[in-house]
Write a structure and sequence with these properties.
acyltransferase activity, transferring groups other than amino-acyl groups (chains A, B), HAT_MetX-like (chains A, B), AB_hydrolase_fold (chains A, B), two-stranded antiparallel ribbon, homodimer, AB hydrolase-1 domain-containing protein (chains A, B), Rossmann fold, AB_hydrolase_1 (chains A, B)
Chain lengths: 345, 345
Amino acid sequence: MNTPSDYQIFEAGDVLLQSGQRHPRLQLAYKTYGTLNAAKDNVILYPTSFAAQHYDTEWLIAPGAALDPERYFIVIPNLFGNGLSSSPSNSMETLADAPYPNISYHDAIPIQHRLLTEQFGITRLALVYGWSMGGMQAYHWAARYPDMVARAAVVCGSARCSPFNAVFLESVRAALTTDPAFVDGRFVSKPSAGLRAMGRVYAGWAMSHGFYRDELWREAGFTSLEDYLTRSWDVAFAHRDANNLLAQLWTWQNGDISRCDAFRGDFRKAMAAIKARVLLMPGQTDNYFQVGDNEDELPLLTSARAAELCPIPSLHGHRAGNPVKIPADTAFINTKVSTLLAADA
Amino acid sequence: MNTPSDYQIFEAGDVLLQSGQRHPRLQLAYKTYGTLNAAKDNVILYPTSFAAQHYDTEWLIAPGAALDPERYFIVIPNLFGNGLSSSPSNSMETLADAPYPNISYHDAIPIQHRLLTEQFGITRLALVYGWSMGGMQAYHWAARYPDMVARAAVVCGSARCSPFNAVFLESVRAALTTDPAFVDGRFVSKPSAGLRAMGRVYAGWAMSHGFYRDELWREAGFTSLEDYLTRSWDVAFAHRDANNLLAQLWTWQNGDISRCDAFRGDFRKAMAAIKARVLLMPGQTDNYFQVGDNEDELPLLTSARAAELCPIPSLHGHRAGNPVKIPADTAFINTKVSTLLAADA
């Protein structure tokens, strides 16, 4: 599937970023599934998560599932920094070797908005659905374009990166950048040891105490804890570009729906701007996007048509929201999202 | 205080270790506080925690506090690998440059036992008290010498290293050993970058979500999250010998009261061997020695004179059990341990 013809590029051109920096040729890679109907009211936007490309997340799109391409026109915009959209790995020439600029969610969402409006004439989203960084993008969409977003499903995400979450990301960055391939702020070659260490750091944060206690890695065919860590986490980021990972870590760590001209850091105001029907679906045992973050957010959704907190009852930690080959969690998500899509909005 | 005269050395001689390896001259560094009474019934054993020396933990010993040197004879045995007792950093000559052997709690506790019996003629402990790895040692003492231990206070510790805890330690090891100073299984020079990365990894695990949310680092005088991470965690392990840290990580990760000839891996049998009055005092928000571990242990203490689970109500995560300059947590611990010491045993 990984061929140029698998996805399209939206040329956003020369873009002034929130930081004051410019990207002279920002490109948004996207893929669509299903057919846009005449009323253009069957659109689901499904942004990508950390280090992921649409190849990694499109499995959730399936006939009969909540994200059903036979019923909906589903668009996956690849997040900047993921190696398909503009990223350090593909911008060197364009940037004439200048440092890659920091790109915030507030930079990314308007480009996604331009794709939908300019390319497809879409003015309303039936749903914006996202997991992890995708969930943060869903939140940003709902706050930034409240009249356009009918429903938002935030799966293992939050409206801003909590300080605890940021400290987790600091540990990921520290493990990765300890590799000697990190020189003067960027990787000059592939940091194999750093990527492996980053995976080991991720292993404890991404999965729960109970996951390891009950040896749930056996469900996926691993034969020992070390086998699981070695074959799953040591290689989890091995095929990613390390400079891309750093770019997305910045985006994640600095995520906050209120850090824009419209809200000027007033978090309550940003939350109150959201009009969508909101489903907050954290993993019950997620260590970094904790249930408590969503609990604190829920009462701030004062203008939302409806807002529900519905933790995924799973020991799979953060991965409960991207339950590849975990039927129970997948079924839970599909049921809740189907209900959300069936509700008035 | 850090002078040779501050502590004593117990020469354990040539010791056959549980692994089958030998240490030809195992030395136990210890320090005593207070006076052993004639009946020799006022003894508190206070083993050390990860990377710590008695300098780091003796602050809890104070007149009027639970560990009161005016009333008790308190012995701190420095855990092997901490740089004062036998450790990679001081065993190179003795070992003729051979790899440092793995030393388990089951190796360490009998040497501590020899110190108490051979050096002081002590046959009964009023209390064994320990935090973190010290708490694990307290547990091992209670299971190994049930008739000698009247009371055991396990603070942020467990009877065995949970798999989740082990995965955390894997992340610490990965961050540390990514440093290029790690060559063929040992550090050949000081891994400054690795030690810093290890500190950043520790930062998220040691403290809680609520600690960061409420910016409790302000209580200690830090002015920003980055200031806290930089001045506290980036340097937390900077003055430690990295090979020593690896040695103690092995001890911690392989901790299990049942992994010895007496119990042959039968965890329930080992737990049932404990006769002491047991106080399990996890931190309510500890991420790696979780409350749930102690909850699971409590019903297994079937022979204990008494067993109580009493979480420290604190946002200071694992540090709730070593609450340097945190008056509320210190008071909580002192009160509970004083009550334990006052109870029949």
